[in-house]
Every structure is written in structure tokens, then in C-alpha cells.
């Protein structure tokens, strides 16, 4: 199950990279760096420009994979970040 | 790739699009809310697949700590969190302000961006900061982000 979650995450990464390349090509280097730093911005930008750039299929795939990745990884404990973790010395 | 100078505004084009600012603001509030409740927010596929934090990893948690008043721990998670929170306030503000004050805020922000190029400089410095953490303090950086 965890392996399936990793595959979903890999799919998300592939979609992210495809849209990130589009972001670099269409908006320039600085907005591309912003997209690299904040994947959420890349996701939102992708949907806002999906029709114009003909990437609606990729965005739909990314959305589905994202939801599945979150569900599966939560079930298997794949994402275990937390706020307030004690600092390492 | 379109040619882009360091002094070309980055924030202002976002702020001019009210629909986009509403979506970004909503997503940011949801992300921070979920993280502060200890729930799953936007996952980083780079971190999950490779174990290596991306340049933005830790920003949400740093922002949550900043809102809780814990500046010291916030900056340890991510040094640039205060700047991103400031940018978020600008974006969120431009999504809800009435037309006239919104126009003044956007024009002031554009003027400031064109004069200083600060937005572009911050983004470049953020990537350099990430590289420095990765190369110099990788083990503690990864351990901090993975929780």
C-alpha cells in the first residue's frame, strides 16, 4: 500500500515538473523559481492556464493523483510531519 | 522563455488578478489551518520521494509558528517565513480591499518592486539558502523537515 502511495507521489512529481516547465516557459525564470518553491502556486497557476496551454488533462491527472497520494499516504503513515518537533542540537 | 529582468514585478501581477488572489489566499489559509491542527496539508512530492526537502519545505510550519509568536523556532524552520507571510498579507489584502485602496496598494507595491527588485532578489536568495542548508547542514535540515 505504501508502494502505491509512492507511485502516486511519483505521478504528482511528474505532473509538477511538466507544469513547472510550462511556468518557466510562459512566465519567466523568477516566476518559475516561485513555482519551484511553492508547488501550490504551480498547481493553482496550472489550473488558471489549463485551457490556454492545453494542459487540462495533466492538471486533472495531477489533481486525482494528489488526492489519492494524500489518502493512501495518510493511511500508511507516509506523511508524518509535525509542528513543534523538538530542535536537534 | 520570456526575457525577465530582476526589477520586473512578481507580486504585482498576482495582486492585479482578484480571482487569483482569492484562490491563493484561500489555499494558503487552508494550508496553514490544516498544518496548525496537525492534519495533512499540501504534500511535497520531492521530499516524499527523495527524502530531500525542496526550497519551500518548512515554510508552512514556520508560518504557523510565526502566527503563534514563536519567532525563534519559526526562523529555524525557514528563515524566509516572515517575508512570505508579508507577501501573503499583501495578496490577501488585495483580494478583499475595495477598488480604490486596492489600486493604491497595488501601485505602491509595483513602484517598490520596480525600484528595488527585492522580490526577485528574495527568490534567488531563497534558492541559495536552500542550497546552503542542503550542502552544509543536510542531516539536521532533513531531520528537522521530516519531523
What's this, in brief?
The complex is a heterodimer of chains A (89) and B (147). With 89 residues, chain A is mainly α.
- List low-pLDDT spans of chain B: none
> CA-to-CA gap between the ends of chain A?
35 Å
State the helicity of chain B in percent bands. Answer: over 70%
Assembly context of the chains: heterodimer
Structural domain tally of chain A = 1
* Gyration radius of chain B, in Å: 16 Å
The DSSP helix count of chain B reads: 9
Q: Show unreliable segments of chain A.
A: 80-89
Share of residues in helices of chain A? over 70%
Tally of discrete structural domains of chain B: 1
Largest sheet data of chain B: none
How many beta-strand elements of chain A? 0
Shape, principal axes of CA atoms of chain A: elongated
By helix and strand content of chain A, what is the structural category? mainly alpha
Label the overall shape of chain B.
Answer: globular
Provide the succession of SSEs of chain A: HHHHH
List keywords for this structure.
heterodimer; A: 89 residues; mainly alpha; elongated; disordered C terminus; B: 147 residues; 74% helix
Can you walk me through this structure?
The complex is a heterodimer of chains A (89) and B (147). With 89 residues, chain A is mainly α. Helix content of chain A is 78%, strand content 0%. With 147 residues, chain B is mostly helical. Helices cover 74% and strands 0% of the residues of chain B. Chain B has nine helices and no strands. In chain B, helix 4 runs antiparallel to helix 5. The N and C termini of chain B lie far apart (37 Å). Classes of the chains: A mainly alpha (89), B mainly alpha (147). At the A-B interface, helix 1, helix 2, helix 3 and helix 5 of A face helix 2, helix 3, helix 4, helix 8 and helix 9 of B.
Amino acid at each position: 500500500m505504501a508502494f502505491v502511495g509512492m507511485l502516486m507521489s511519483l505521478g504528482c512529481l511528474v505532473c509538477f515538473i511538466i507544469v513547472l516547465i510550462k511556468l518557466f516557459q510562459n512566465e519567466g525564470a523568477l516566476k518559475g523559481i516561485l513555482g519551484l518553491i511553492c508547488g501550490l502556486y504551480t498547481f493553482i497557476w496550472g489550473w488558471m492556464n489549463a485551457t490556454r496551454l492545453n494542459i487540462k488533462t495533466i492538471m486533472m491527472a495531477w489533481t486525482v493523483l494528489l488526492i489519492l497520494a494524500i489518502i493512501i499516504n495518510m493511511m500508511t503513515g507516509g506523511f508524518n510531519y509535525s509542528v513543534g518537533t523538538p530542535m536537534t542540537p | 522563455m520570456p526575457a525577465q529582468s530582476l526589477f520586473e514585478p512578481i507580486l504585482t501581477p498576482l495582486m492585479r488578478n482578484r480571482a487569483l488572489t482569492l484562490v491563493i489566499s484561500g489555499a494558503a489559509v487552508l494550508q496553514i489551518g490544516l498544518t496548525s491542527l496537525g492534519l495533512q496539508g499540501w504534500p511535497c512530492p520531492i521530499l516524499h520521494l527523495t527524502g530531500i526537502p525542496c526550497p519551500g519545505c518548512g515554510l508552512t510550519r514556520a508560518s504557523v509558528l510565526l502566527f503563534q509568536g514563536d519567532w525563534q523556532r519559526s526562523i529555524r524552520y525557514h528563515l524566509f517565513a516572515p517575508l512570505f507571510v508579508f507577501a501573503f498579507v499583501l495578496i490577501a489584502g488585495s483580494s478583499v480591499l475595495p477598488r480604490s485602496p486596492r489600486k493604491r496598494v497595488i501601485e505602491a507595491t509595483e513602484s517598490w518592486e520596480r525600484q528595488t527588485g527585492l522580490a526577485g532578489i528574495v527568490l534567488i536568495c531563497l534558492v541559495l539558502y536552500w542550497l546552503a542548508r542542503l550542502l552544509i547542514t543536510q542531516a539536521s535540515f532533513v531531520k528537522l523537515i521530516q519531523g
